[in-house]
């Protein structure tokens, strides 16, 4: 007999849980239903039941998930919920674990809202750097809203109560319906064109998302962004957020709050003025008292009571300083005079005119010495020349020839004949005498014995 497999309740619940969590068709399921038995536990978790006309389903939304909800679920609210199916093992009950939830009926609007919000935020229209400050004391306030709603009444009453002197320019517009957005855009452009106000309040009273939708239109957001006049958005209640609130320079929770943000309260200004006046009076009084005390102290000062006495010592000191100054000045003048004399002497010693005169004298003396030396040298050279002339004259052949001697040359008169060895019989010789020339023909030669021996020796 086949043994029966017996499971515990826990095991069975866990098995069912695993089967349900493993089924892809039960993950990321969107459900439409009405909330009942809603409980927001102190731990932050939400427990409720989603039901329709024929069935119901237990649901839980943990605190980590419901913190991102843009609305507070309430009993009887119709919602769209996204989540997955699983089993709570302890009770053996399957339930719906909600991860996202939004009010039913506005799903497309909500999606359009989120898409436009992301688009404009990416363009920087929500940047804090673009926000302009609201004038503290506006000369006039422009109000763009419905002329018949409670919002315009709250705004005007609040402005007149807080700041009665400020003019209010109301531009009536449609705040609900398909023509609301163009009407609001036209009003903002008209207010900017007239430039008669310093701040604009754009808004309306509370309502459903559909009723507030005009303030989520892109043309309204871009019109507010392009406005030269700072804009305060005042749409719906504190929990209502529209695209206009993100684009506006300042967001007010309600129309009444917008009026309070637009102008200061005149009683607060009076109190501030009174406080400032008192502070100023007290400060001036303290300053006057300090000045009086200082004046009294100055009056009691010995410098003012006995001014001549205060001048005696400085006068004596001034006399001593004059004497010291005169002594030091004389000493410096004497030193300067001595230095001047030294400089003049130095300058005279190095005077170019005197140096030129001395140089000229030295030049004249050197010239005279040079002439004298040249004359002496010339006389010496002339005397030596005469001596050499006389010596040359004494040795001149002409002088010898005058004593009866003659010179014998060869036939061409190129060589002197002074030996018979240079002559042969028949040669023609040229004889130069003291008074002329003679040609001779050699017929005979006789050699002297003594000359021959002398030559041979």
Task: Spell out the key features of this protein.
457 residues, five-stranded mixed β-barrel, five-stranded parallel sheet
Describe this structure in words.
- There is one protein chain.
- The chain has helices at 9-21, 63-66, 107-122, 150-162, 180-194, 218-226, 243-247, 255-262, 266-299, 302-305, 307-349, 352-394, 397-402, 449-456, and strands at residues 29-40, 46-51, 56-61, 78-88, 93-103, 141-145, 168-172, 199-204, 231-235, 250-251, 407-409, 428-432, 437-441.
- It is elongated.
- The relative contact order is 0.05.
- By secondary structure, it is α/β, with parallel strands linked by helices.
- Residues 452-457 have low confidence and may be disordered.
- 48% of the residues lie in helices and 18% in strands.
- The strands form three sheets. It has a five-stranded mixed β-barrel with strand order 1-2-3-5-4. Strands 7-6-8-9-10 form a five-stranded parallel sheet, sandwiched between helices. Strands 11-12-13 form a three-stranded antiparallel sheet, with no helix packed on it.
Tally of individual helices: 14
* Overall SS class: alpha/beta
| Number of beta-strand segments | 13
Low-confidence stretches: 452-457
Q: What is the 3D form?
A: elongated
Strand fraction equals 15-25%
What distance separates the N and C termini?
Answer: 185 Å
Query: What are the secondary-structure elements, in order, as H or E?
Result: HEEEHEEHEHEHEHEHEHHHHHHEEEH
Largest sheet: 5 strands, mixed, barrel
User: What number is the mean pLDDT?
Assistant: 88
């Amino acid at each position: 007999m086949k043994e029966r497999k017996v499971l515990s309740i826990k095991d069975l619940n866990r098995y069912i849980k695993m089967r349900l969590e493993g089924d892809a068709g039960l993950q990321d399921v969107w459900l439409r239903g009405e909330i009942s038995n809603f409980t927001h536990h102190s731990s932050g978790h939400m427990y409720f039941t989603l039901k329709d006309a024929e069935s119901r389903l237990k649901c839980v939304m943990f605190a980590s998930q419901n913190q991102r909800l843009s609305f507070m679920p309430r009993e009887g609210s119709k919602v769209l919920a996204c989540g997955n199916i699983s089993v709570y093992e302890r009770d053996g009950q399957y339930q719906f674990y909600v991860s996202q939830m939004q009010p039913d009926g506005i799903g497309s609007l909500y999606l359009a809202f989120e898409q436009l919000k992301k688009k404009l935020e990416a363009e920087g229209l929500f940047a804090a750097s673009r926000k302009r400050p609201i004038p503290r004391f506006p000369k006039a306030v422009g109000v763009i809203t419905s002329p018949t709603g409670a919002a315009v009444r709250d705004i005007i009453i609040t402005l007149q109560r807080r700041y009665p002197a400020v003019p209010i320019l109301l531009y009536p517009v449609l705040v609900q319906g398909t023509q609301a957005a163009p009407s609001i855009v036209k009003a903002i452009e008209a207010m900017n064109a007239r430039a008669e106000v310093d701040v604009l309040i754009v808004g309306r009273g509370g309502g459903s998302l559909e009723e507030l939708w005009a303030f989520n239109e892109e043309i309204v957001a871009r019109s507010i962004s392009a406005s030269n006049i700072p804009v305060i958005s005042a749409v719906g209640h504190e929990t209502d957020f529209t695209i206009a609130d993100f684009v506006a320079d300042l967001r007010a929770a309600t129309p009444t709050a917008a009026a309070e943000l637009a102008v200061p309260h005149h009683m607060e200004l009076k109190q501030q003025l009174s406080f400032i006046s008192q502070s100023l009076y007290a400060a001036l009084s303290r300053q006057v008292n300090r000045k009086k005390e200082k004046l009294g102290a100055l009056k009691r000062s010995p410098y003012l009571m006995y001014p001549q006495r205060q001048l005696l010592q400085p006068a004596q000191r001034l006399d001593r300083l004059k004497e010291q100054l005169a002594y030091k000045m004389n000493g410096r003048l004497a030193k300067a005079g001595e230095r001047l004399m030294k400089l003049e002497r130095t300058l005279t010693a190095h005077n170019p005119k005197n140096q030129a005169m001395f140089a000229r004298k030295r030049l004249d003396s050197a010239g005279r010495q040079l002439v004298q030396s040249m004359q002496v040298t010339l006389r010496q050279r002339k005397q030596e020349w005469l001596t050499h002339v006389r010596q040359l004259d004494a040795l001149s052949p002409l002088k010898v020839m005058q004593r009866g001697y003659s010179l014998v040359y060869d036939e061409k008169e190129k060589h002197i004949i002074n030996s018979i060895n240079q002559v042969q019989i028949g040669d023609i010789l040229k004889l130069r005498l003291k008074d002329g020339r003679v040609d001779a023909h050699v017929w005979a030669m006789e050699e002297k014995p003594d000359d021959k021996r002398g030559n041979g020796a």
